[in-house]
Every structure is written in C-alpha cells, then in structure tokens.
Amino acid sequence: MQSLEPCVNPVSVKTLAVISQPIYKPDLVRRLLLALFSGEWQAGDRLPEVELAERFGVSRTPVREALQEIAAIGLIELRPNCGAVARACGSEEVREIYEVREILESEATRRACGRIAPRKLAALAADFLELQSAHRRDAAWSQREWAADHQLHELVAHACGNQRLAGEIRRYDQLIQVIRETVGNLREAQVAAIGEHLEIVKALRAGKPEQAAEAMRRHIRSAADHAIAALDSGHARTHAPA
Amino acid sequence: MQSLEPCVNPVSVKTLAVISQPIYKPDLVRRLLLALFSGEWQAGDRLPEVELAERFGVSRTPVREALQEIAAIGLIELRPNCGAVARACGSEEVREIYEVREILESEATRRACGRIAPRKLAALAADFLELQSAHRRDAAWSQREWAADHQLHELVAHACGNQRLAGEIRRYDQLIQVIRETVGNLREAQVAAIGEHLEIVKALRAGKPEQAAEAMRRHIRSAADHAIAALDSGHARTHAPA
DNA sequence: AAAAGTGGACGTGTATGCAATTCTTGACTT
DNA sequence: AAGTCAAGAATTGCATACACGTCCACTTTT
C-alpha cells in the first residue's frame, strides 16, 4: 500500500468549470433521514431498495450505501438477505438521541475545561453577548447564532483530549442538525440557547469543569425539550396518524 | 411501503441442507479490522478497493460496503472520489476507544441500577463466585467467563432505559472484541475481571448507582490497561516498525 | 380438511462495465 | 533549474446484470 498524501487538491483546477459528477449518497442519506423523522414510515415498515431507487431517481447501489450508513446511525435495521426495516423515529427516540449527546458532550466539556485558549473563549463570549443584546430574529441573526453555537460545540469537542469522543460528538451533532431541520427553526430554542451558551463559556473561562459540564447538560436538555415539544405538537403533520 | 413482518424464519427449512450463499461483507469487516489493529497499515496509507478485493478474493462491491462500515466506526477515513485512508490504530486509539466505552457504560450502569431483576443479579453473582473459586485457566473456563462477562454488560445495556445508549455500548463491545482477538486471550485480564465484575454486581444488588458506576469505570480502565500493555509489548510484532 | 410440499414472484448480495475524477509522469515555458 | 501545464494511468461512483434467498399462494398428500 502506498503511503502518499491523498486528496491534496480539494478540487482540481482544470475541472472547476466542468459540472462535477454528483455524488448521490450523502444527499440520499440526508433525504432518507428527513423522511424518517417526518414520520413517513412506521416502525417495522420495510424499505425495498428498488422503491427508494425509483423515488430518488438513482440506482440501487447508492441507495444500498445510504441505507447502510443510516443503519450504522441506528435508525433502520438491516437484516441479512432481508433488507431494511424502519425503526421508530418519534419523540422517544429523539429524547434518547439527546440523552446520549448529553452524556458524551457533558463529559467532553469537563475534559475540555482549562484546555481551550482563553482568547477563543473571550471571543466566543463577546459574540454571544452581542447576539444576546441585539436579539433580532431575522434569518441572518439565526444563521450567526447557529455559527457561534457550532463553534462552541466544536471547540469543546476538539479540546476534550479524545479524538474518538470528539468524533462521536460530531456524529450526534449532524444527526441533531437533521432533526432540527425536520422540526424547523425554533426561534425560542435559539434565544434560550444563547443564555445557556454563555453559562457554559463562563464556567469554562472560570476553569470550573464540573460547573461547565453541568451547564452543558442543562443546555442539551433544554434543546431536547424544545425539539421534542415542536415534534409532538404538530410536526408529525406531514404524515399524520389517521 | 408494506408493513409486513419481515424475516419471520431465521432460515427457511427447505434450504437448511443447501450451502447458503456466503455473505462476504461481515467477514470482510472483521478481517479488515484485524489487519488495522495488527498495524498492517500506517496512518495515511491509502486502501485501494481493487487491491483489497483481490486480496480477499471478492469483487469491489462488498469491499466498498465493508470499508464504509469501518469508516462509520471511525478507523478509516473515506474521502469523496478519493477512497479510503487508514487512520492510526495504535495504543493511543485503543485507549480512546476504552475511554468512550467507559463514559457510555458507567452512565448506563448508573441508570440500570435498581432496574435489573434481583434474580438475574443473584444468578450472575453465583456464576462469578464459582468462576473465582475454581480459577482454572483452560479454554472452557475462559469461554464460560467470557459468557458471564458478556451477560453482565448486556444486562446493564438492556436495563439502562435508553435503547440508543444500549446500541452504542454494543457497538463498542463488538469493537473491543476485535481488539481482544488481535492481542490474544489475556488470562490475567480475565482473572482480574472476575473480581471487578463481582464488585459491579455487588453495588447493583445493593442499589447503589454511584458505586456501581464507579466499579464499572474501574473495570473498564483495568481492561484497557491490560489490552494496551499487551498491544505495546510485542503485539505489533506481526508488522514491526523497522 | 389440515398439514406438508412446491413453484414462482419479489428482493437482496455480488460481479462487472462505464463515466467521471484524481494522481502521476513527462514535456514545455520562463 | 524551477515551476506550470497536459495527457495517460489509476481509482472511485454509479448503473446494470445475474445468482441466490425469502416469502406467498397454490397444489398435493394423508
């Protein structure tokens, strides 16, 4: 096996103008996740590959790969010689997802305490304070708030001292991003999040790992409550139960 | 989508005698994991699909699927249009794996406390006591010890009240099983594990969640120490570094 | 008539072929 | 001589083809 630096170029220069070959699988995963959380399939429903392939206009190959990825996430079951079976993706499962995230990320916060550059924490605190004072609610504000949110969680994951733990946290962040996309933008959750983020940053800057971990726990529980409330009250509407 | 009960028969009766079609992927995943932990590839090595396909005597399709599963585990990186790149799988990464397992399983133990049938705990305690008193070291003993080990961890996962958390724990158990297979049977670790298991069961039976969680932490740290010691001292021999 | 056996439709697992992209080696320009 | 560009080789992503397994309805047997 050659040990070369792979993928040195993000994208080759000469092919920039050409319409690059679309890589279907990532988008398939996203669309399948959205469909799952929208309640399109009940737990136990079979998901035949040909049906999904026709629906998304691709062949079975990328569908298979997408299904395997979703099975790795744990939202469908993949039985040998038998195909994919949907698992429940309701509020109970969302609660469980947030709980695991809480376990992972609170521990990461505890470990990251004292290992993040004070300058970065100060900059983040300033960002959150500014967002808090000028609490607008337009899309630009929302996007900026989300960026700061992501920055904090990424900072914690990166500094926790365990790259595998960081990877698991990023996996759950992606999953929760899909859930948020399913239930729509929750302004209230974002407003609440700013204060919770500030508490986390405050504890991190003070070098108090237990308080920081506890603040992260509260933050994730709050986010879970908002998401589940939105999911329960009228967001299973797209495929209502009879 | 039809909502039928799929795969009712574990295996159809009339095809029992027939040599069933081998499903290559699961075995491929196992062999690739063993190769990774054996240090066959350095971090950064590219793993071309055709090379692996020829080596294992299958086509690219099952190799691709196996690589995707390993990428989901996080032991290789899969860059779009660029293929698989090996990540480091040394003692540091094994340490990280055990740390995440510790985080997940100690929390699961805390939650499972008081939710496991006392009869099952009593039976497990009796098993461990018998194994401890008659500390033989043959293969049958080892296998029985491993069965009791697995039973305890499975009991905790099942009773923790969060099926997703249980799923993550099972994923890590499988991964660690591969690591154990790589470094060989560690008799000392198994002997030590019995006492640690007994402490866990004791705390669970006493209904003391914090003590149970702490006992699980100690147990997993001990297992990590044994595995890493074995990995460092002479188990990277199969592909020694120059 | 009930249980067991059988055939075919449906679906998955794998192999192979093709298009697009990336990597590499060589020639060319400054 | 060093850097730049380009063409060919190598490799990935997807589509298609085929073999096998599963499941259901029907036939056969007792």
Describe this structure in words.
The structure is a homodimer of 242-residue chains. Chain A is mainly alpha-helical and 242 residues long. Chain A is 66% helix and 4% strand. Chain A contains nine helices and three strands. In chain A, helix 6 runs antiparallel to helix 7. The N and C termini of chain A lie far apart (57 Å). The N terminus of chain A is likely disordered. At the A-B interface, strand 1, helix 3, strand 3, helix 4 and helix 7 of A face strand 1, helix 3, strand 3, helix 4 and helix 7 of B. The first copy, chain A, binds a DNA duplex (30 and 30 nucleotides) through helix 3.
Give the SSE map.
The structure is a homodimer of 242-residue chains.
Chain A: H1 24-37, E1 46-47, H2 49-56, H3 60-73, E2 76-79, E3 83-86, H4 91-112, H5 118-133, H6 139-159, H7 163-183, H8 187-206, H9 209-232
Antiparallel strand pairs in A: 1-3, 2-3
Chain A binds a DNA duplex (30 and 30 nucleotides) through residues 4, 6-9, 11-12, 14-15, 18, 20-25, 46, 48-50, 58-62, 64-65, 80-83.
Number of helical stretches of at least 4 residues of chain A: 9
Main beta sheet strand tally, sense and closure of chain A: 3 strands, antiparallel
Q: How many strands in all of chain A? A: 3
Average pLDDT over all residues of chain A: 89
User: H/E element string of chain A?
Assistant: HEHHEEHHHHHH
Secondary-structure class of chain A:
mainly alpha
Helix proportion range of chain A: 55-70%
Greatest interface (CB-CB under 8 A), with counts per chain: A-B, 45 and 44 residues
Spatial sequence of strands, sheet with the most strands of chain A: 1-3-2
Q: C-alpha Rg of chain A, in Å? A: 20 Å
Shape category of chain A: elongated
